[in-house]
């Protein structure tokens, strides 16, 4: 799916993009080399099983950034839970020594950051469009689909 495409489902059309960030437990700088390669592979595997498209993945030492698109049936928190649980399980399988580095616990922290990323206009444009609903029909309509 291209970043500017509207995806059509059975009962909806959508164009939802999320910027998600979550840190390694204790902010340990473990995201480098083969661990990053593994996490990217695992996330691409998640993409195949769920209606999630990984558009960009970047690791910065102690945290990961994911730009993804997903079906609206998934709340952003669900996306994070899926990504964190599957990547943690698989990373520990592939790199068992990491458990000692993290005192045998979890790979990711409990917290995360998520924001929507828009393509078709700024907040001000959409706000103006909504505010002008019901005005004269000569106003230009915002093209949504």
Report the major sheet.
4 strands, antiparallel
| Annotated CATH homologous superfamily | Transposase IS200-like
Which strand-content bin applies to the residues? 15-25%
State the order of secondary-structure elements, H for helix, E for strand.
EEEHEEHHEH
Query: What would CATH call the class?
Result: Alpha Beta
Describe the overall structure.
With 145 residues, this protein is α+β, with helices and mostly antiparallel strands. It is 34% helix and 21% strand. It has a single domain, classed as Transposase IS200-like (Alpha-Beta Plaits, 2-Layer Sandwich), CATH 3.30.70.1290. The strands form two sheets. A four-stranded antiparallel beta sheet has the order 4-5-3-6, with helices on one face. A two-stranded antiparallel sheet has the order 1-2.
